[in-house]
Structure formats: C-alpha cells, structure tokens
Amino acid sequence: MGALSCSTAFCSSSVADIRRESRRSRTVGGRFMASSLPVEQVNPSPSQSSTGDSFIRLHLRKLAPYQPILPFEVLSTRLGRKPEDIVKLDANENPYGPPPEVFEALGALKFPYVYPDPESRCLRAALAEDSGLESDYILVGCGADELIDLIMRCVLDPGDKIVDCPPTFTMYEFDAAVNGAMVIKVPRMADFSLDIPQIVEVVEKERPKCIFLTSPNNPDGSIISDEELLQILNLPILVVLDEAYIEFSGLQSKMKWVKRHENLIVLRTFSKRAGLAGLRVGYGAFPISIIQYLWRAKQPYNVSVAAEVSACAALQNPEYLENVKNSLVQERERLFSLLKGVPYLSPYPSCSNFILCKVTSGKDPKKLKEDLAKMGVMIRHYDKKELKGYVRISVGKPEHTNVLMKCLNLLK
Ligand SMILES: Cc1ncc(COP(=O)(O)O)c(C=O)c1O
Q: Transmembrane region positions (predicted)?
C-alpha cells in the first residue's frame, strides 16, 4: 500500500513535467514547431534528478503492483511440509499431471540448443486433428495468458474499451490495464449468468472493441448457452470466448465457429486438460482475417521446444486425457455433495474443475483459508467486491477431497 501511494504521488509531479516538456518542444521563440511525431507520443527525457520510474509509461505507473503467487517450493518451506504433502486446491491445476509420453518426450529432447519452430507446425497439425479445425485457423501461445495479451496488443489502441463481466478471470482486466485500455464492467447476475440486456446496451452506447467471455466461467463454473453467445456475436464487437475449462463441461468447443463468425476468437489451454500448467501451452482459434495480424505481432519463439514437444506428446494419448477428465468430473460431483453437508459452506454447481462456495454462518473466509493452509490444504479466497465472502476449491484426487473434508469438519 505504501509503495502504491508513493508512486501515485510521483506520478502527479511527472504529469506536470511532461506538460512542461511538451510545451517546450512545441514552442521555440513563441513559434509553433512542427515535429515529425505528434508531441504527445514523444516520451519526455527524464531530468537528471528523476528516478528510474520516470522512464516507465504513464499508464503503467498507475497500475496496481503485481501480486505473485508463492512458488510451490517456497510454500512448502513456509508451511513446513514436503510439496507432495500439500493438498493444492487453489489454482485449478490438474493433479494427475500429463500422460507418461510427455516425460519420455522431454527426456528424449535432442536439440534444446536450437530455437523452436516459430509456427509450432507439429503442434498445430496435432491440434487440427484433435479439434477438427484446420491448422490455418490455429495459433499457439505461451499459455492462454499470452494469447489474451497478444489479442489486446493487436486490437486495442490506448483508450479503447473492452467489456468484462465480473466475477471472472482477472487477467482480462489486468491485460487491459497494461495495454492502456478502459474496462467497462457488466457484472454477472446473482446466479453468475451474463446480464445480456446490459451487455447489449453497453455495446450500443459505449462502442467497446471487444468483450471477454469465459465458459465455463472461472470462478463459479457456469456456462454460456449457445443462444446467449449468438446474441452477443450479433453485436458489432469482437468476442473472445475463453474455453480454458471446456473439457470438464461435457460441451463441444466452439473452435469451429470461427469459420462462420468473423468476430469470434476461441481460446483453450493444455494447463487444465493435460496437466501442463508449468510448461505453458495455450492455443486459440481465429478467423483467417484476424489470425494473420497475430502472426505478425507475436514473439517468434513464444512456444519453447519443451512446451511444443510436451503438448504433442500429450495429444498422442487421448485415452489418458479422457480418463483423467472423467475422474475429475466424477470427483467434482462427490466433492459437491460433501461440501453441501458442511454447515458453513454453500457450494454452487459447477461445469468445471473447481467449486465456488459462499461462506456462511458468520465464518470469516480469509481465516478459513488461513486455517486450512496451516493444515496443509490450499484453497482460494476472494476479497474483491463481487466475491466478498466466497472461496473457490479446485477438484483434486479422491484422497485430496478426503483430507479437505477432514480439515473442514475440524473447523466446524
Ligand atoms: C479462464 C482462464 N483462462 C485462461 C487461464 C490461463 O491459462 P494458461 O495456463 O494457458 O495461461 C486460466 C488459468 O487459470 C483461466 O482460469
């Protein structure tokens, strides 16, 4: 908090500096000077007394500080438990990990000293087979996270608007801020469904450039119906549909829809379906008219050799992926009915690999999270406006559910 107010104070004096600089470069001897660049785009050179943050773009200086998650090893030291003794149900990871083919492929890497294929050809071919959509429509990224940022870099000019429907995945809002865009929030309804009339009104009035939709939604696990999606696709707005958790919903991905809808992008990931969160592989389906620009703007080597090899190997064992998904879906249902029996939790039905719970009976959600952490069980707690009083619990293996339930019962 201290750091934030300090940088804000510095920020206001810098605005004055910029204005002064700007006036100086426009007028010499009372005459207006032409410049090859609009003056507003020229960064003022920092004065000798400036500190390093004067080099940073203005809108980024106002960004809230990044809150990193604790690395697994650090968490393990802090909790005084071996990593394998921690029940990690706080980040929607897939506790089964990838199929054995991935470990074999990583161990057999022949050319780690050669740069990866900038077009990830092998993986895109495998994804085309997996999804039924030709590889021309598919682009791979360093996690879906990278693709969210890449889309924004290609689509948004500073000051452009996006629509966000909280509570949802917070990276949309974060990346919008990094890209200097404005976020129009259309909060979800009490049951976490989209407020379609409000979205329609906002699109008509505010002319935002794109909307980020998540189905199943993180953190509640609700899905968007085809009718709702079609209604939004009919609006003059680019729709980015994030399907990071689609496998757990039993629904078909909408990847193929990008052939019919010029304003649709669909994002997916290997983090959840294939247990590859640590290797960072995400992918997206794009209309041809859009994907060509993402190719131009992306970092050439955004997907590492290890990441591409791992994802290809994972796709070679669809039976493993299917079994793991089925185990998680089955465990989700067991976890849901067990959580319903906890007197201070009210769980929401979920189509994903996590369950959102309202914490009731006057119990403090933050303390609940901390008490569970002391017992080696990590869950996610929320203190943001729309989700104050909620916790989210990822679905683990049956033994993880058993430990969690034991701890929750001790905290009654
Ligand atoms: C809705 C949603 N989209 C995207 C991601 C990030 O996916 P990746 O690990 O591929 O960057 C997450 C991660 O939790 C998520 O919840």
A: none
